[in-house]
Amino acid sequence: MKIAVLGTGYVGLSTGVCLSEVGHHVICIDIDDQKINRLRQGISPIYEPGLEDLLTKNTAAGNLQFTTSHQEGIENAEVIIIAVGTPQRNDGAADLSYLLQAAKDVSAHLKPDSIVVIKSTVPVGTNDYVKSIITNHTKKPFKMVSNPEFLRQGSAIKDTMKADRIIIGSEDKEAALKIQEMYRPLNVPILMTNVRSAEMIKYASNAFLATKISFINEIANLCEAVGANIIDVANGMGKDKRIGEAFLQAGIGYGGSCFPKDVKALLHTAGLHGVDFSLLRETIAINDEQQKLLFTKACSRLKQLKDKKIAMLGLSFKPETDDMREAPSIKIAHLLHEAEAKVVAYDPVAKDNAKKILGDTIEYASSVDQAIENADAVFIVTEWNEFKQLDLTEVTKHMKQPIIFDGRNCFEENKIRACSKIEYYPVGKPAI
Ligand code: UGA
């Protein structure tokens, strides 16, 4: 199948690369010519395990191409997948300006009877709106399909190739069957719905997962108060198949480009329709508080943070990505900066992106050793494998005070206890 993908962000690029891998002819379009040039050379603009290998392989095989020309990309495509960003507006709603521009670009070069697929995360009703825009800009016949994406950063390729489900929302049976055909080589469950249900499935899924995280974080805080252990509690809860084991890891709150924005956008949509979705307001409020957890604990333990050296291990919103969007590290760094602490941070890959947001409010180390040297406390902010494997005796030896605030529960209890000097504060478990 000849497929054009508009937008080479996480979703567009991963989708394009994976569809080329299963034998389709894919052309990815982006207005950023530097990005397109690098992609042509097999260089990925994002850190994503496995992506560059497939990029290089399929570009060389000739079934994956990149262009800045909408005409070149769209005019021969049977299927056009729109995967541009829908960032958050100040009022919490999704900003649809990139999407609307994409709709105009598509209508200018559309081949008759092609299928326009919206993969971007869009509020309910947006597919119909985009359809009306394209209809206003072209007389050529076309069909629309809503096909939201569920991949996670850091495991984008695996999540695309082995998706739990693919949602195909359309009022046009023929178009839906063609998109089903496009995904058939992936051999994963496919669910057909109407357009608005498909749009809603995406937001409902992200909002539910975010709420699950806020719920387990509140349970963790309660565990600390009553002397229970969140690891055992989450394990015991997760064994119930109705609850499920995933997304019960307590920590310092969710971040990233999706959960914070999508929960707010769903809340906004609910408001527009007169529905008071107060649960989502609480999900957001709990998350905002949880991101302050390490700071609050450090204040109560160290009393005065002024001129204390704090080593922040991890900056990205989660491991295996260099993405800093809405990362808890941002709020933590701001709070420490206001408290006049000296912050030295280390992250295996997110340093450059962090600098764009945090500038010189913190220092950036090029190794764990450099960050922890003479530190009054360590904050573990992102659960990178490199940190989980640290020798705690070695770490504490180089610190001024052997105090660790672990926001991601990175270590087994026996490993912590084997380190005689450590003072260790996890999330939702007794301190050691
Ligand atoms: C999320 C969803 O998981 C994807 O299904 C969805 O496609 C994507 O958003 C999107 O809408 O594009 P992502 O933001 O890449 O994916 O990352 P997740 O792995 O879901 O993690 C999000 C945040 O939740 C991270 O900050 C992570 O640390 C936190 N989290 C996750 C927890 O605090 N506890 C958990 O148990 C799981």
From TrEMBL:
EC id: 1.1.1.22
Pathway it works in: Nucleotide-sugar biosynthesis; UDP-alpha-D-glucuronate biosynthesis; UDP-alpha-D-glucuronate from UDP-alpha-D-glucose: step 1/1
Coiled-coil zones: none
Keywords: NAD, Oxidoreductase
Domain of life: Bacteria
Catalytic activity: UDP-alpha-D-glucose + 2 NAD(+) + H2O = UDP-alpha-D-glucuronate + 2 NADH + 3 H(+)
Example GO molecular function: oxidoreductase activity
UniProt keyword Ribosomal protein, yes or no: no
InterPro entries registered for this protein in UniProt: 6-PGluconate_DH-like_C_sf, NAD(P)-bd_dom_sf, UDP-Glc/GDP-Man, UDP-Glc/GDP-Man_DH_C, UDP-Glc/GDP-Man_DH_C_sf, UDP-Glc/GDP-Man_DH_dimer, UDP-Glc/GDP-Man_DH_N, UDPglc_DH_bac
SUPFAM superfamilies: 6-phosphogluconate dehydrogenase C-terminal domain-like, NAD(P)-binding Rossmann-fold domains, UDP-glucose/GDP-mannose dehydrogenase C-terminal domain
Top EC group: oxidoreductase
Keyword Oxidoreductase: yes
Protein family membership: Belongs to the UDP-glucose/GDP-mannose dehydrogenase family.
NCBIfam families assigned to the protein according to its UniProt record, in alphabetical order: NDP-sugDHase
Protein name in UniProt: UDP-glucose 6-dehydrogenase
Protein species of origin: Niallia oryzisoli
